[in-house]
UniProtKB/TrEMBL annotation:
Alphabetic keyword roster: Hydrolase
One GO process term, biological-process aspect: L-tryptophan catabolic process to kynurenine
Stored SUPFAM superfamilies: Putative cyclase (SSF102198)
Entries under InterPro entries matching the protein: KFase/CYL, KFase_sf
GO molecular function: arylformamidase activity
Domain of life where this protein originates: Bacteria
Organism this protein belongs to: Saccharomonospora glauca K62
Record-given protein name: Putative metal-dependent hydrolase
Lineage start: Bacteria, Bacillati, Actinomycetota, Actinomycetes, Pseudonocardiales
Length: 273
């Protein structure tokens, strides 16, 4: 029997290599001071209850904020002057304890072209300096290095190398030292290219100056409120960078948390094997 195969299925059948772009979730992992941390413990262990046939089961309870670990921000996450993206009244939208507009259940699944903008590689370092602000020139140089500039509907991932500090919460959060990240001008460069989403390997995506903490986050305003572009944080871009993969198929399926402001995610990059 002759079967006509979809080109996408044919490409997958030919072999695909997947790269993890997220961090593992574990109790005690680094967490922004603005959000409740991740906690997981077994509430039922094997042997606590035995079935007549000798079977047993274990399960856990998970407590976490929606912006803890590798996650994506919904458009309800940030407002400016009382307005969400599209001039939506934030106070009205959040009545009743969940968002009636821009909730996390509206976060899209993504199967898009992804581009790695490896700014650390542009500077010839493993990790950018604490508090370094990623500029437009940095993104342009990273796009040239990748041989691929992000465009409309794409996903742009910015590597600072900061994921190397994930095992040391104090260093990773960088309260005293600052954390490298995207500047307002660089965010506008991405917005001009009409990317659907962007992410980075840090807590807040954007530059955090030494000692400033997360008091002011103007890049979130530019991307989420003004441009409707989703932000991903706590990515791990080390493996894909080490393998020299800078253009790929980006896969993402957020949890559909009704009325939420974000979702934990497990993003993947796919290339031909």
């Amino acid at each position: 029997m002759t079967r006509t195969q979809d080109p996408l299925l044919a490409a997958v059948s030919g072999g695909v290599r997947l790269f993890e772009l997220g961090q593992p979730f574990f109790t005690g992992m680094p967490c922004s001071p603005n959000h409740p941390g991740f906690r997981m413990t077994l509430i039922r262990r094997h042997g606590d209850m035995m079935r007549p046939d000798g079977g047993s089961a274990a399960n856990e309870i998970i407590v976490t904020g929606g912006h803890v670990g590798t996650h994506i921000d919904a458009l309800s996450h940030v407002s400016h002057d009382g307005k969400l993206h599209g001039d939506v009244d934030a106070a009205q939208a959040q009545r009743g304890g969940t968002f009636s507009t821009h909730g996390a259940e509206n976060l899209p699944g993504l199967l898009r072209r992804g581009v790695l903008l490896d700014v650390a590689a542009v500077h010839g370092v493993a990790t950018l300096d604490p508090g370094y602000g990623v500029t437009v020139a940095d993104l342009e140089a990273a796009a040239q290095l990748a041989g691929a500039e992000p465009g409309e509907g794409d996903v742009a991932l910015v590597r600072t190398g900061w994921a190397r500090n994930f095992g040391d919460p104090t260093a990773y959060l960088g309260k005293e030292t600052g954390v490298p990240g995207v500047t307002v001008e660089a965010a506008r460069w991405l917005a001009e290219r009409r990317v659907v989403a962007t992410g980075a390997d840090t807590t807040a995506y954007e530059r955090i100056p030494a000692g400033a903490g997360h008091a002011v986050l103007p890049v979130h305003r530019v991307l989420l409120v003004e441009s409707g572009i989703f932000i991903m944080e706590h990515l791990n871009l080390e493996d894909v960078a080490e393998q020299g993969v800078r253009e790929f198929v980006f896969l993402l399926a957020p949890l559909r948390i009704t009325g939420g402001t974000g979702s934990p995610i497990r993003p993947l990059a796919a290339v031909s094997a």
